[in-house]
Specification:
This protein has about 425 residues and is of the alpha/beta class. It has helices at about 5-20, 30-55, 110-120, 125-135, 140-150, 150-160, 215-230, 245-250, 260-270, 280-290, 295-310, 315-320, 325, 335-340, 345-360, 365-380, 395-405, and strands at about 70-80, 80-90, 165-180, 185-195, 200-210, 235-240, 255-260, 385-390. Belongs to the transposase mutator family.
Length: about 425
C-alpha cells in the first residue's frame, strides 16, 4: 500500500502524539526515531532472509531439513538518529549475507555523510566526536572519523583527474593560503582553478598545492594537466600577478587572453591607503575600469595619479605595473566584463575554504589540507562533480562570447 502525503502526515502525527503520551523522546537512545529505525531495519533484514531461504518466517516450508533460520544475534549500529540495537536474523549454515546492514558493518552510510559534512565545515576529529556524543549520546572514536574521511582520498584523486569540457569561455586562477606543518608551520599557497562552462555553470577544475616559489614550469605542468583532461580552448584566463603564469597560459592555449583580476586589482589598491580614503579612492578608480577604451582609461589613470600619487604612490604603481594585463578587459563587450568582474561565486567558495582551514588551524601535510579543501568542494555538489549554477543572465554573455570569439564557442562543447 502506498500512502499519499496526507496519510503520511497523519501517520507521523499519530506516532508523535503516542510518543508524547508515553513520555518517549523523539530522538536519542530509546526515542521514537530510534525505535522506528530499529523496526524498519529489522523488517528489511527479515525480508532479505526470506528471499535468501525462499520462505517467510514461521512458514512450515522451513522444516524441510535444508538451511533454515537459526535465531538472531544482537548488533548495535550507528545511524543518523544515534545508536540502534538490532536483532539480526541468522541461518544455520551461515550463508546469509545481508545487504541493508552488512556483516561487520557498524555504521549506516548516512553516518559517514554526517562526518564528511561536519569535516567540510572545518570541525576537527575531536570536535566531530564531541558532536556525536552531545547530539546522539554515542561514542565514535577519532580514529574512526579519520578512516571515514580517508575514504574520500580515492574519490578526490578521481575528481582531480576527471575529464573536463572541451571549451571554457573563462577560467579563474586564485590562491588560498593554508598553514601546513613542514618541519615548522608555514603559510603555503593552494591554487584553485575555476572554469565557466558554455552553459554558464561554475566548474571547479582542480586544486593544487604550491610552495610559494612557483614559476612558469609549475604553471605549465598544472595547465598541461588541465589540457590533457580534455580542455582544448580557453577564451579568457583571469589571474592575479602569479609569476610565470601568463607565459604558461600562452604556451598551453595560444589564443587565450590573459586578464588580470580587476576585483583583486581594486582590492589590492586599498592596501596602500588608509581606511578613511577607501570610499573616495573607489570612486576615483571606477572611471578607469568602466572606460570605453584603453585611451580613455589611461587618461583616467593619469587623473588618479594626479590626485593620489603623492599620498599613495604604491597604489598608482600597482595599476601601471598591471596595465598590460588589465587593458584587454576594456576591449570586451559589457556582458563579458560582467562575467569577469562578477566574483560572488568565487568569493563565496573562498569564504567556505577559509572558514574550514581557519577552524583547523594548521594541517600536518599537503594531503590533509587538500582533503579538507576537497570535502568543502564536495559539499557543494554531492555528485562529486564540483559544479553549481554560476550566473543567472548567462545567455546575453554567451551571445557576446560567441561574437567576440567567433567560431570558438559552441554550447554543445560541455
Amino acid at each position: 500500500m502506498v500512502l499519499d502525503e496526507d496519510d503520511k502526515q497523519a501517520l507521523a502525527q499519530r506516532l508523535v502524539d503516542q510518543a508524547k503520551a508515553e513520555g518517549v523522546d523523539l530522538i536519542g537512545p530509546g526515542g521514537l526515531l530510534s525505535g522506528l529505525t530499529k523496526q524498519v531495519l529489522e523488517t528489511a533484514l527479515e525480508e532479505e532472509m526470506a528471499e535468501h531461504l525462499g520462505y517467510d518466517k514461521h512458514d512450515p516450508a522451513g522444516r524441510n531439513g535444508h538451511n533454515s533460520r537459526n535465531g538472531t544475534r544482537a548488533k548495535t549500529v550507528m545511524t543518523e538518529v544515534g545508536p540502534v540495537e538490532l536483532d539480526v536474523p541468522r541461518d544455520r549454515d551461515g550463508s546469509f549475507e545481508p545487504k541493508i546492514v552488512k556483516k561487520r558493518q557498524r555504521r549506516l552510510d548516512g553516518v559517514d555523510q554526517i562526518v564528511l559534512s561536519l569535516t567540510a565545515r572545518g570541525l576537527t576529529t575531536g570536535e566531530v566526536a564531541a558532536h556525536f556524543a552531545d547530539v546522539y549520546d554515542a561514542e565514535i572514536s577519532k580514529d574512526t572519523i579519520s578512516r571515514i574521511t580517508d575514504k574520500v582520498v580515492g574519490e578526490m584523486t578521481e575528481w582531480q583527474t576527471r575529464p573536463l569540457d572541451r571549451v571554457y569561455p573563462v577560467i579563474f586562477i586564485d590562491a588560498l593560503v593554508v598553514k601546513v606543518r613542514d618541519g615548522q608551520v608555514t603559510n603555503k599557497p593552494f591554487y584553485v582553478v575555476i572554469g565557466v562552462t558554455t552553459s554558464g555553470e561554475r566548474d571547479i577544475l582542480g586544486i593544487w598545492a604550491g610552495d610559494g616559489g612557483e614559476g612558469a614550469k609549475f604553471w605549465l605542468q598544472v595547465l598541461t594537466e588541465i589540457k590533457n583532461r580534455g580542455v582544448d580552448d580557453v577564451m579568457i584566463a583571469v589571474c592575479d600577478g602569479l609569476k610565470g603564469l601568463p607565459d604558461a597560459i600562452g604556451a598551453t592555449w595560444e589564443l587565450a587572453q590573459v586578464q588580470t583580476c580587476v576585483i583583486h586589482l581594486i582590492r589590492n589598491t586599498f592596501r596602500y591607503a588608509a581606511r578613511q580614503h577607501w570610499e573616495k579612492m573607489a570612486k576615483d578608480l571606477r572611471p578607469i575600469y568602466t572606460a570605453v577604451n584603453a585611451e580613455q582609461a589611461a587618461a583616467r589613470l593619469d587623473d588618479f595619479d594626479d590626485k593620489w600619487g603623492a599620498i599613495c604612490p604604491a597604489a598608482v604603481k600597482l595599476w601601471r605595473n598591471a596595465w598590460g594585463e588589465f587593458i584587454p578587459f576594456l576591449d570586451y563587450d559589457v556582458e563579458i566584463r560582467k562575467i569577469i568582474c562578477t566574483t560572488n561565486a568565487i568569493e563565496s567558495l573562498n569564504a567556505r575554504y577559509r572558514r574550514a582551514v581557519r577552524a583547523r588551524g594548521h594541517f600536518p601535510n599537503d594531503q590533509a589540507a587538500l582533503k579538507c579543501l576537497y570535502l568543502v568542494t564536495r559539499s557543494l555538489d554531492p555528485t562529486g562533480t564540483g559544479r553549481a549554477r554560476w550566473v543567472i543572465r548567462w545567455k546575453a554573455a554567451l551571445n557576446a562570447f560567441a561574437i567576440t570569439f567567433e567560431g570558438r564557442i559552441n554550447p554543445s562543447d560541455n
